[in-house]
Amino acid sequence: MIRLFAAFAMTLAAFSAQAEEVTTYTLDNGMEVVVIEDHRAPAVVHMVWYRVGSADETVGNSGVAHFLEHLMFKGTETLAPREFSATVAANGGSDNAFTSYDYTAYFQRIAADRLELMMQMESDRMNNLQITADDVATERNVILEERNQRTENNPNALAREQFNAALYQNHRYGLPIIGWKHEMEQLDLQDALDFYDLYYAPNNAILVVAGDVDPEEVKALAEQYYGVIPAEPQLPDRFRPEEPPHRAERRITYVDPRVSQPYLTRSYLAPERDPGAQKEAAALVYLAELLGGSPFTSDLGRALQFDSQIAIYAGASYGGESLDETSFNLVVAPADGVSLSEAEAAMDKVVADFMAADIDPARIESIRTQMRAAEVYALDDVQRLARRYGAGLTQGLTIADIQAWPDILQNVTEADIKAVAAKVFNPDKAVTGWVVATKEEAS
C-alpha cells in the first residue's frame, strides 16, 4: 500500500509539472488575449472579462455592475434582444455571465469551429449595446426579484450582508454584489449607460480562449473583431478606498424567526494573493484545511463534531482570489442543547490548541497530495482553466503568478502556516456573528 501511494504521488507530481500551454497577446487597443490550448475535444470556451465589478461602483449606485450584466443580453444594432443566447443555443452551445466584486465576465462554450461567430457577437455587444428605458424597467424588476429570492427570503444571506458590512469599515467589499435594495430600486437608464460607456472597453478587458484552437488563428480573429474597437481614453485608475486600522472586535447578533439552525461565524481580515507575493495566501489555504476542511481530519471537525459532539457542523474557509484584502472564516453550528456561548468557547479552544501545538508533518504532506491531484483534475476542465486565468488577471495577478501558484502551494511549511495564523487571528480585525431565531437563543 505504501509503495502504491508513493507511486501515485510521483505520478501526480509528473502530471502537475506539465503546465498548460498558454499564449498571450496584447492588441493595439490594449485588450489582453490569453489562449489556452487543449486539443483533446473539438470544443472551445470563449470568455471576455472586464476589470470592473461591484467594488468599482460609485457611491449610491450599488448593484449597477450586476444590473448591466443583465442588460448586456438585451440586444445590439444587429442582434435582437435575447438573440445572442438563442444563437449560441442554436449552434449547440451554452452561455452565461457573472459578476463579482472585482470583475464581470461573459462566456460561451461551443464547438471550436463556431469561435468566430462568438467573437463577432461578443465584440458587437462590447461596443454597440442598445437598451431603452423599457428594457431598464423590465430588467430592474428582474434583479429586484432575484434579490428577493436569494437574499430577502434567506435569513442566512441577510445575516452575511450584516457581517460583511461590519467587517469592511471603508472598503466596498462591505456592500452586497447584487446591491442594497433601496439603491437598486433607483437604478436608471443613464446609470447603466454611464457604467457601460466608461468600463466596457477593450483596454479594460481580457479575452480568454481555451480549447481546440490555434493561438495564431485566435490572434487573427481577435484583431479582426476586437482590435477595431477604440480604447476608452477616460478609463480611470482602479482606485478603491482602503481599510483604516481596525481597533476593536465587533460582534453582531442577527435574529430572524426563519432561522432553523442557530450558528456562529467569525471572519478575520486576511491577505489576498498579490503579484509576486502569494506565500501567505498559500499558507492560509493550508490553515483552512487543517482547521476546518474534512470533518474527519480537521481540528474543528474532530474536536467539536466527534470528540465532544458539541457541534453538528464546524468548518473554516479562505478565499484568496481577491484584488484587495479578503477574509478567513470560521463557522460552528452547535448541537441540540448546546448554547452559542459554549460553542464559541469550544471553537476558541480549538484555535488556541492549534496555535500551541506542532503541526503533524504527515497532515501537511496529505494536503500537498490532495492539491497535486486537484491540479491534475483541473487540466481536464478547460472552462475551469479559463476562469482561473480570467479571474486571476482581473484581480491583479500576472500569468507568471497564476502558473507559479501550484508550486507555491507545494512549498508551504509549518512555519509559514503558524506565522500567517498568528497574523490573521487578531480579534481587533474580526467580526463574530450569531444567527438565531429568537433573542432567547442568543446566550
- Portion of residues in helices? 40-55%
How would you name the oligomeric state of the polypeptide chains in this document? single chain
- How large is the radius of gyration? 23 Å
Average pLDDT for all residues: 93
**Largest sheet report:** 6 strands, mixed
Number of domains: 2
Query: Which residues sit in consecutive blocks of at least 5 with pLDDT less than 50?
Result: 1-18
CATH fold-type name of the largest domain: Cytochrome Bc1 Complex, Chain A, domain 1
What is the H-and-E element order?
Answer: HEEEHHEEHHHHHEHEEHHEEHHHHHE
Strand content: 15-25%
The CATH architecture designation of the largest domain is: 2-Layer Sandwich
Q: Count the DSSP helices.
A: 16
| Count of individual beta strands | 11
Characterize the structure shown.
By secondary structure, the protein is of the alpha+beta class. It folds into two domains: 19-225, Cytochrome Bc1 Complex, Chain A, domain 1, CATH 3.30.830.10; 250-441, Metalloenzyme, LuxS/M16 peptidase-like (Cytochrome Bc1 Complex, Chain A, domain 1, 2-Layer Sandwich), CATH 3.30.830. It has helices at residues 2-16, 64-71, 83-90, 115-127, 133-152, 155-167, 181-184, 189-199, 215-225, 279-292, 299-307, 340-356, 361-378, 382-394, 399-410, 414-424, and strands at residues 21-26, 32-37, 43-50, 94-99, 104-111, 205-211, 250-255, 263-270, 311-318, 326-334, 430-436. It has a six-stranded mixed beta sheet, with helices on both faces. The protein has a five-stranded mixed beta sheet with strand order 7-11-8-10-9, sandwiched between helices. The longest helix has 20 residues, at 133-152. The relative contact order is 0.16. The model is unreliable at 1-18 (pLDDT under 50).
